[in-house]
Amino acid sequence: MRKKKGLLIIMDGLGDRPIPEFEGKTPLEAAYTPHMDKLAQNGICGGVYPICAGLPVGTDVGHLHIFGYNSDLVYRGRGPLEALSAGIELADGDVAFRGNFATIDDNNIVVDRRAGRIREGTNELASALNGMQLSNGVKVLVKELTEHRVAVVLRREGLSDAITTTDPGTGEEGEKICHPTGIDNTVEAQDTANALLEFTQKCHEILKNHPLNKQRQENNLYPANIILTRGAGMKTAMPSIYKRDGIRAVCIAGDQTVGGIAHLAGMDYYQEESFTGSFDTNLHGKGLKAIEFINSGKYDWIVIHCKATDLAGHDSQPQRKKEYIEKVDIMIGEILSHIDLHECYVSITADHSTPCCLKDHSGDSVPTLISGGDVLADCVMNYNERSCREGILNNLTANDIYHLQLSYMGFMKKRGS
Amino acid sequence: MRKKKGLLIIMDGLGDRPIPEFEGKTPLEAAYTPHMDKLAQNGICGGVYPICAGLPVGTDVGHLHIFGYNSDLVYRGRGPLEALSAGIELADGDVAFRGNFATIDDNNIVVDRRAGRIREGTNELASALNGMQLSNGVKVLVKELTEHRVAVVLRREGLSDAITTTDPGTGEEGEKICHPTGIDNTVEAQDTANALLEFTQKCHEILKNHPLNKQRQENNLYPANIILTRGAGMKTAMPSIYKRDGIRAVCIAGDQTVGGIAHLAGMDYYQEESFTGSFDTNLHGKGLKAIEFINSGKYDWIVIHCKATDLAGHDSQPQRKKEYIEKVDIMIGEILSHIDLHECYVSITADHSTPCCLKDHSGDSVPTLISGGDVLADCVMNYNERSCREGILNNLTANDIYHLQLSYMGFMKKRGS
Question: Based on C-alpha coordinates, what's the Rg of chain B?
């Protein structure tokens, strides 16, 4: 079977709902995206569900399904993924958490879930906590991630990930941090919950007195005086994308969580300092790197991840979402002028929708297209939520889209003969 | 529940991709098919996946799913099917292979995978090999099938189908035939691999000196001097279509592999010598036989299989594919003028796509329609890959289409009450 290459552009949290100030258009509908539209005109489109209709997913689960995995079978929570992203080598029995640097007041009320989206100095704060020894013999590993994000690992034999965590939730501020408890009645779970409580208390003591936070307060910035934890989990085994499907894949991303998922899938992960995982990321540089990878022959499947669409959704900033989408379109235009669509299929999708009106992930389908040389185009003329749903991929799932890409590229093994 | 009849026409490997010489149309789009289009206008259509999006299937697996089976549960390889097609009664423990009469040179390099698509004399060649006794007590059964195809069975107690075979692959010529080995470390697998090797060597000695091959060489034809084997398997149990669903079904086909699948499904298999399984098959005769079966009351479900669309795809002959489709359309016209669509639903589908640009099966969807008396028609006006995908059956699977046909015919059992 002939082999071709594939490029996939993922805009995190892209899908949205009607925005009043855009006269009912979504940010993607309102954006000027001639290159995405050209791909739609020469491709096949659909509103695609990450797993199934109506089920919202996280970035982790969404990406696993985009990469052809069934998260139910291979995935046990975000904690281990964040640890991997942070470069922490997990041992069997470690319990890992995803964490946020956050701001609480004297009554343990969460004032800001992201400590004002802190970006500088989190490595110092993490270092001040890393290696902490708790009274029940547990050692704590702490390592900063992108922006306010941080990985936390509890290490000792006889721990359990069947515990509740300290983060009161992903919704509004103003709630009290939670008291961790065991979900089952085992000694291991109680012991782990106690360790997490003790870590959280000591963490607050250390952080609130940290010079960096004193200075933030002087500058009228939220102090990063606590780590909120969630997503407790232990590590699992997962086949690499190469072993499973024979494709050599690379993920170009600034966001370390996505980098961690790529790592988990055995894909290469390419990052530069200018890939910030935010609005100011170097999209031009990502495009150049993708062109280089496509033309080098080193990889079969090249994935570019663009994060800020999701941030704009969470922060309910439709205008910013629209502008960022237009920047991604310019990147796509640059790539298209340097590659041959008869040799490399180009696809666009999202891991989930993050509508500005919800400030959170929704169970809506995500606009998706597959374009290239011999794709029998459907009637869709524009790449956006509304138009794509008229396409022939409508109601398929992220796993389906992965398999269709591989089928075009010539990497799907025939069942039967 | 009232009962109606159903006629299903399967065009093997029908689906295709844009053909440059047809100005980007597929062979089916380029073909003049007024009768298929009429059925589409009065029916419901879709681009249908044999199993799921992007997964290419073989003729065997594709037909099992068209007949309502889940191949994962009932099917263990092509070998036993070919033996059944050839009329070999498999005993428990037999290991069966599908084979090709092929041409190798003195260095065991495959020169032609199909011995110039040999059609005459394969019964003589098979007879010269059938009944061969090998040194480890294995008896070999050999029986010719359509054209270059042949069934091979190794018979002795204590054999295994966990072995690699001698066919270097379905791709290009120029590769050496493979040395069979056990896939697992059992004595049974090693013993079976040794038997297959010995058979292959003896087979080459006998065939290369066979008068029929001497004559082929004098006529500048490729000698059929080896049998390449693949698809090792043992027999499995499978409920008949009648036992499962209560329908009396018949399959009209020239291709013996499809005949074997019909046989496996407990359907009657109707064949005439003029049904060649190739471009020159007697489509008029197939149509007449279908009309007879529909009007006789002997069967509930009548299936006509037409093979040459697949051959044209494998040989990358879009013009021939188009012309053959037009002949099938004429056959459909003849049938329609002799049956009552209020008494017999008519459906058209394919087991998989075989795009001319790939020369192999793809994971694309296949154009599918169900038409007849009380079907609530959708908006599709033409039967082809592009138009059908706009229809209401889009993205369903072959199993879904089977169940819909049975539902219209009145044979689906109600779940609940």
Answer: 22
